[in-house]
Design brief:
Number of helices: 11
Number of strands: 8
Subunit structure: Homooctamer; tetramer of dimers.
Number of domains: 1
CATH superfamily: Aldolase class I
CATH class: Alpha Beta
Bound molecules: 1-deoxy-D-xylulose-5-phosphate, ligand LD2JLWAY
Structural class: alpha/beta
Site (Transition state stabilizer): 155
Catalytic activity: 3-amino-2-oxopropyl phosphate + 1-deoxy-D-xylulose 5-phosphate = pyridoxine 5'-phosphate + phosphate + 2 H2O + H(+)
Strand content: 15-25%
Order of helices and strands: EHHEHEHEHEHEHHEHEHH
CATH architecture: Alpha-Beta Barrel
Keywords: Cytoplasm, Pyridoxine biosynthesis, Transferase
EC number: 2.6.99.2
Distance between the termini: 13 Å
Length: 257
């Protein structure tokens, strides 16, 4: 039995982080995106942060103009970012929480707590033909809010689970993974398309690829960091192979049931 494919969106933010550390143009996130596509990425993700600390407006414009695969724009749900997305028209917009002082995106979007502001922004983006996803914690309250906001997609935040795995906190990691499994099932049952991402490496990507409800992973930091040692193409091929192993294991298990 052939396992249904799981898409890989490669996040090129941290190529821009390295470029910005010295100023100038090298390394160029667009070149990284082109290498990623050649190595098997199904899409490219880039987070235009309000403080522009990695990806900048001009990067988004070039990615949109040059890429042949879907562009997923991660953005805060602010009027400024909505206006930029409406001009840029990426394939997808993933609404994420942002705090200036955070080192990375720390949690999911509190969709339930800001539904009144969020729903019209989701509608505006959707009406422009942009597929909206909400980057949320694997929490049933947030899934309800995503449905209420009219978002067709949720991206489940895998960061807490990945940190527990990396720290060797076995019980915590298992509990977090079970939350993700339940949330993926519930989200699909509510009619939402399910993506996942944040902090994934080949081990965690393989495990999460075994969930048939999850149809897309967005991965950046591990790939860009690993590229330093082995090149970006090789890192992406290794990640794709891990995802495929996860998918095939799940298919075999389903066929054996
Ligand atoms: C939303 C998300 O999980 C990532 O795309 C993250 O935003 C990458 O950029 P930072 O590392 O700056 O948070
Ligand atoms: N939405 C998650 C993402 O795009 C990549 O997160 P990370 O792999 O850079 O942690």
């Amino acid at each position: 039995m052939t396992a249904p494919k799981i898409r890989l969106g490669v996040n090129v933010d941290h190529v821009a982080t390295v470029r910005n550390a010295r100023g100038g143009r090298h390394p160029d996130p667009l070149r990284a995106a082109e290498i990623a596509v050649a190595a098997g990425a199904d899409g490219i993700t880039a987070h235009l942060r309000e403080d522009r600390r990695h990806i900048r407006d001009d990067d988004m414009a070039r990615l949109k103009a040059q890429l042949t695969v879907p562009l997923n724009m991660e953005m805060a749900a602010t009027p400024e970012m909505v206006e930029i997305a409406l001009r840029l028209k990426p394939h997808a917009a993933c609404l994420v929480p942002e705090r200036r002082e955070e080192r990375t995106t720390e949690g999911g979007l509190d969709a339930a707590g800001q539904l009144d502001d969020l729903a019209p922004r989701v509608r505006t983006l959707g009406a422009a033909g942009i597929r909206v996803s909400l980057f949320v914690a694997p929490d049933p309250l947030q899934l309800d809010a995503a449905v209420a906001a009219g978002a067709p997609v949720v991206e489940l935040h895998t960061g807490t689970w990945c940190e527990a795995v990396a720290a060797g906190e076995r019980l915590h990691a298992q509990a977090e993974f079970e939350r993700i499994v339940r949330a993926a099932r519930e989200a699909k049952a509510r009619g939402l398309e399910v993506h996942a991402g944040h902090g994934l490496d080949p081990v965690t990507a393989e495990a999460i690829s075994a969930l048939p409800e999850v149809v897309e992973l967005n991965i950046g930091h591990w790939l860009v960091a690993e590229a330093v040692f082995d090149g970006l193409g090789a890192a992406i091929r290794r990640m794709r192979a891990a995802m495929q192993r996860g998918r095939e294991a799940a298919s075999r298990e389903a066929a054996g049931r």
